[in-house]
Write a structure and sequence with these properties.
By secondary structure, this protein is of the alpha+beta class. It contains twelve helices and eleven strands.
């Protein structure tokens, strides 16, 4: 059945029956990821004149976050290379390493009995290598995106929070290069961890929102906002409106679509990995939050507004979301609307109140507010959600 025809009370069963990957599917994708990860770490750069050391290969995307949809077998792998010693070097040399990975993959498929189809690109200095893998034992193809990156974080431990100097370096290089958001792959582990430890039911809600997004994409085509923006919007809706391990899926879904409809009011960020205390990061965050809405900052990368993009994308998705409110998936058994979570909203006033989990700081009257503002400290067990609405 189409999602729009599923009664609200049956949404959890719809997710279980149609969206959750089954055990065999997960095993197959994991096997394919292991094949490519091993290749990148152990075989890819053998025999090159300038020895290349792979410090780590990190699984990102839906597979890494635990929000994969059934039937969508794709994997993002970020390969961190010792030869990339700065964000600028990553930008300048990534195409060189992608070409080497491409060459070695084609050689590897003959040795290992794999079948690899590499997607062509028209860019001289591509950001990503995309290919499809078939392998013995795999029942279906798996699509990969491989991205070379600068290992700015090093080896992470549980509850890791980057030193502010990491983001100072990021902000300065992004400004010098004019490439805000370009280096988000460097923070893949933080993006993954931000979602991976969330409650199982929240991940199911994220899957439902992603399925809805893919349905809209098939009907509307491009442009649409990035899917990652919808994932973060779902986390925000849950944190501010519910924050419980058990909840009404229909109400959560309805809340996310309400936020999509009200996209002009969205200005969202998190202080789990960065905050206002540093004299470089603080003013930069203020600049980011004063940009035209919608603003949804990547929780791991303050230079990346994941809600930015083609101006027509949000209005198109918002119009579609508004039409969905009349569908069966938002109706109770008696035909009444399921309603949504109560997310407190504050209109932006002339005093420019910054709201952070019901704490207020008026930076309109204090030009030096960033040096004096004691932002809430991120905790391992808690993600601070901050909002200007």
């Amino acid at each position: 059945m189409e999602l729009s025809n599923i009664p609200a009370k049956n949404l959890d069963k719809f997710i279980e029956d149609h969206l959750l990957p089954n055990t065999q599917f997960r095993r197959q994708v994991k096997q394919a990821i292991n094949v490519i990860s091993s290749f990148l770490k152990e075989k890819c750069f053998r025999g090159v004149s300038d020895p290349v050391r792979v410090s780590k290969v990190v699984k990102g995307g839906s597979s890494g976050k635990g929000t994969t949809l059934r039937g969508r077998s794709d994997a993002d792998l970020v390969v961190f290379l010792s030869q990339l010693r700065s964000f600028g070097e990553q930008l300048a040399r990534r195409g060189e390493f992608i070409q080497e990975i491409r060459r070695q993959l084609l050689a590897c498929q003959r040795e290992e009995g794999l079948k690899i189809e590499i997607q062509s690109t028209r860019w001289e200095n591509p950001r990503v290598l995309t290919f499809v893998l078939w392998s013995p034992g795999l029942w279906e193809e798996v699509e990969f995106d491989v991205l070379p990156a600068f290992d700015v974080l090093g080896q992470l431990t549980r509850g890791y929070r980057p030193d502010p100097s990491v983001y100072v370096k990021l902000i300065q290089e992004c400004r010098n290069l004019g490439k805000e958001g370009e280096f988000s792959p460097c923070f893949t582990e933080l993006q993954r961890d931000f979602l991976k430890q969330r409650p199982t039911k929240l991940k199911s809600l994220i899957r439902l929102v992603k399925h809805w997004y893919q349905t809209c994409k098939e009907q509307l085509g491009k442009p649409l906002p990035p899917q990652y923006a919808l994932e973060l919007l779902t986390v925000y809706a849950w944190e501010r409106g519910c924050n419980e391990t058990e909840f009404s899926t229909a109400q959560g879904f309805h809340t996310v679509l309400e936020l999509v409809v009200n996209y002009k009011q969205l200005c969202i960020y998190w202080t789990k990995y960065y905050d206002f205390e540093n004299h470089v990061i603080g003013p930069y965050l203020k600049e980011q939050l004063e940009k035209p809405r919608p603003v949804i900052l990547d929780p791991a990368d303050p230079t990346r507004n994941v809600a930015a993009g083609e101006p027509r994308s949000w209005p198109r998705l918002a119009q579609e979301a508004e039409e969905w409110f009349d569908y069966q998936c938002f109706k109770n058994w008696d035909g009444s609307p399921v309603g949504s979570w109560n997310i407190q909203r504050k209109e932006r006033s002339e005093d420019k109140f910054l709201t952070c989990d019901c704490r207020k700081y008026d930076y309109g009257q204090h030009p030096a507010y960033l040096q004096n503002y004691n932002a809430p400290q991120a905790r391992e067990e808690e993600n601070w959600t901050c909002t200007i609405l």
